[in-house]
Write a structure and sequence with these properties.
Helices cover 2% and strands 36% of the residues. It is mainly beta and 160 residues long. A 3-stranded antiparallel sheet has the order 3-4-5. A 3-stranded mixed sheet has the order 8-10-9, with no helix packed on it. It starts with a strand and ends in a 15-residue tail after the last strand.
Length: 160
Protein backbone atom coordinates (compact mmCIF):
# COMPACT_ATOMS: atom_id res chain seq x y z
CA UNK A 1 0.00 0.00 0.00
CA UNK A 2 1.14 3.52 -0.64
CA UNK A 3 -0.25 6.87 0.34
CA UNK A 4 0.10 10.43 -0.88
CA UNK A 5 -0.01 13.61 1.16
CA UNK A 6 -1.30 16.85 -0.40
CA UNK A 7 -1.18 20.23 1.31
CA UNK A 8 -3.48 23.04 0.18
CA UNK A 9 -4.32 26.21 2.09
CA UNK A 10 -5.54 24.99 5.48
CA UNK A 11 -6.01 21.35 4.52
CA UNK A 12 -3.90 18.21 4.62
CA UNK A 13 -5.30 15.52 2.32
CA UNK A 14 -4.02 11.96 2.57
CA UNK A 15 -5.05 9.42 -0.04
CA UNK A 16 -4.33 5.72 0.00
CA UNK A 17 -3.57 3.79 -3.18
CA UNK A 18 -3.98 0.05 -3.65
CA UNK A 19 -4.83 -0.83 -0.05
CA UNK A 20 -4.52 -4.57 0.47
CA UNK A 21 -5.80 -5.27 3.94
CA UNK A 22 -6.42 -8.81 5.01
CA UNK A 23 -7.62 -9.90 8.36
CA UNK A 24 -9.00 -12.97 10.03
CA UNK A 25 -10.78 -14.03 13.17
CA UNK A 26 -9.21 -16.10 15.90
CA UNK A 27 -11.29 -19.21 16.51
CA UNK A 28 -13.62 -18.69 19.43
CA UNK A 29 -14.34 -21.75 21.51
CA UNK A 30 -18.05 -22.53 21.72
CA UNK A 31 -19.14 -25.68 23.47
CA UNK A 32 -22.45 -27.05 22.24
CA UNK A 33 -23.94 -30.06 23.95
CA UNK A 34 -26.38 -32.18 21.96
CA UNK A 35 -27.25 -34.36 24.93
CA UNK A 36 -30.76 -34.47 26.33
CA UNK A 37 -31.60 -32.51 29.47
CA UNK A 38 -34.07 -33.29 32.19
CA UNK A 39 -34.74 -36.36 34.28
CA UNK A 40 -36.50 -38.35 31.55
CA UNK A 41 -33.33 -39.26 29.60
CA UNK A 42 -34.18 -39.15 25.89
CA UNK A 43 -37.54 -37.48 26.57
CA UNK A 44 -35.81 -34.17 27.44
CA UNK A 45 -34.98 -31.19 25.21
CA UNK A 46 -31.72 -30.68 23.35
CA UNK A 47 -29.88 -28.28 21.07
CA UNK A 48 -30.80 -29.39 17.58
CA UNK A 49 -29.22 -26.76 15.37
CA UNK A 50 -26.61 -23.97 15.55
CA UNK A 51 -26.07 -21.67 12.55
CA UNK A 52 -25.42 -18.11 11.38
CA UNK A 53 -28.43 -16.58 9.63
CA UNK A 54 -28.48 -14.07 6.75
CA UNK A 55 -28.58 -11.16 9.24
CA UNK A 56 -25.29 -12.39 10.75
CA UNK A 57 -26.91 -13.62 13.94
CA UNK A 58 -25.71 -16.72 15.77
CA UNK A 59 -28.85 -18.85 16.16
CA UNK A 60 -29.27 -21.80 18.52
CA UNK A 61 -32.40 -23.94 18.23
CA UNK A 62 -33.65 -26.23 21.00
CA UNK A 63 -35.94 -29.12 20.05
CA UNK A 64 -38.00 -31.53 22.10
CA UNK A 65 -37.74 -35.30 21.80
CA UNK A 66 -40.20 -35.25 18.87
CA UNK A 67 -37.84 -32.98 16.90
CA UNK A 68 -40.06 -29.89 17.15
CA UNK A 69 -38.18 -26.62 17.70
CA UNK A 70 -39.48 -25.27 21.00
CA UNK A 71 -37.02 -22.40 21.64
CA UNK A 72 -34.74 -20.27 19.50
CA UNK A 73 -31.91 -18.13 20.88
CA UNK A 74 -30.37 -15.49 18.62
CA UNK A 75 -27.51 -13.09 19.21
CA UNK A 76 -25.94 -10.65 16.71
CA UNK A 77 -22.38 -11.70 15.86
CA UNK A 78 -21.42 -8.02 16.09
CA UNK A 79 -22.30 -8.29 19.78
CA UNK A 80 -20.22 -11.45 20.17
CA UNK A 81 -17.11 -10.39 18.21
CA UNK A 82 -14.94 -7.40 18.95
CA UNK A 83 -12.18 -5.95 16.79
CA UNK A 84 -9.61 -7.21 19.30
CA UNK A 85 -10.84 -10.74 18.52
CA UNK A 86 -9.33 -10.48 15.04
CA UNK A 87 -6.09 -12.46 14.96
CA UNK A 88 -4.02 -9.70 13.38
CA UNK A 89 -5.15 -6.73 15.48
CA UNK A 90 -3.02 -5.73 18.43
CA UNK A 91 -3.38 -2.77 20.72
CA UNK A 92 -2.45 -1.98 24.26
CA UNK A 93 -4.34 1.29 24.57
CA UNK A 94 -6.85 3.11 22.45
CA UNK A 95 -8.19 6.63 22.49
CA UNK A 96 -10.95 8.52 20.77
CA UNK A 97 -9.89 9.28 17.19
CA UNK A 98 -7.37 6.43 16.82
CA UNK A 99 -7.26 4.56 13.52
CA UNK A 100 -5.88 1.11 12.71
CA UNK A 101 -2.76 0.92 10.57
CA UNK A 102 -0.79 -2.16 9.53
CA UNK A 103 2.62 -2.57 11.19
CA UNK A 104 4.88 -4.93 9.24
CA UNK A 105 7.28 -5.33 12.17
CA UNK A 106 4.66 -7.16 14.25
CA UNK A 107 2.52 -8.36 11.29
CA UNK A 108 -0.64 -6.86 12.77
CA UNK A 109 -2.87 -3.83 12.70
CA UNK A 110 -2.20 -1.47 15.60
CA UNK A 111 -3.72 1.77 16.82
CA UNK A 112 -2.36 4.92 15.32
CA UNK A 113 -2.82 8.50 16.48
CA UNK A 114 -3.43 10.40 13.25
CA UNK A 115 -1.30 13.54 13.58
CA UNK A 116 1.45 15.12 11.47
CA UNK A 117 3.96 13.72 13.99
CA UNK A 118 2.94 10.19 12.99
CA UNK A 119 3.01 10.54 9.21
CA UNK A 120 6.00 8.86 7.58
CA UNK A 121 6.68 11.64 5.09
CA UNK A 122 6.27 14.59 7.50
CA UNK A 123 8.98 15.85 9.84
CA UNK A 124 7.36 18.38 12.13
CA UNK A 125 10.10 18.31 14.78
CA UNK A 126 10.87 22.01 14.10
CA UNK A 127 7.24 23.12 14.32
CA UNK A 128 6.50 26.36 16.10
CA UNK A 129 3.77 28.97 16.06
CA UNK A 130 3.42 30.12 12.43
CA UNK A 131 5.21 27.12 10.88
CA UNK A 132 4.36 25.81 7.44
CA UNK A 133 5.14 22.45 5.87
CA UNK A 134 7.52 22.57 2.90
CA UNK A 135 8.49 19.52 0.85
CA UNK A 136 12.22 18.78 1.00
CA UNK A 137 13.23 16.79 -2.10
CA UNK A 138 16.50 15.62 -0.56
CA UNK A 139 14.86 14.20 2.57
CA UNK A 140 11.72 13.19 0.63
CA UNK A 141 9.62 14.62 3.47
CA UNK A 142 7.51 17.62 4.27
CA UNK A 143 9.39 19.62 6.91
CA UNK A 144 8.04 22.21 9.31
CA UNK A 145 9.68 25.59 8.90
CA UNK A 146 9.21 29.22 9.81
CA UNK A 147 11.04 30.30 6.64
CA UNK A 148 10.59 29.54 2.96
CA UNK A 149 14.12 28.91 1.83
CA UNK A 150 13.96 26.95 -1.42
CA UNK A 151 15.06 28.06 -4.89
CA UNK A 152 12.23 26.06 -6.48
CA UNK A 153 9.55 28.03 -4.61
CA UNK A 154 7.73 30.84 -6.37
CA UNK A 155 4.62 32.90 -5.69
CA UNK A 156 2.69 33.77 -8.81
CA UNK A 157 -0.03 36.43 -8.73
CA UNK A 158 -2.07 37.63 -5.82
CA UNK A 159 -1.86 40.59 -3.49
CA UNK A 160 0.83 40.68 -0.82
Amino acid sequence: MSYRTELTKNEIKISFENPQFKTGVEPIEYNVSLSRTGTQGTKGDSISNVYVDTNKNLVVEVSNSAGTVIETYSEALSELLRIIDLKDVSYETREDGDILIYDEEISAFTTHRFTTSNLRDVDDSARADGSILIFNGTAQKYKASLNIDNENFSIIGGTF
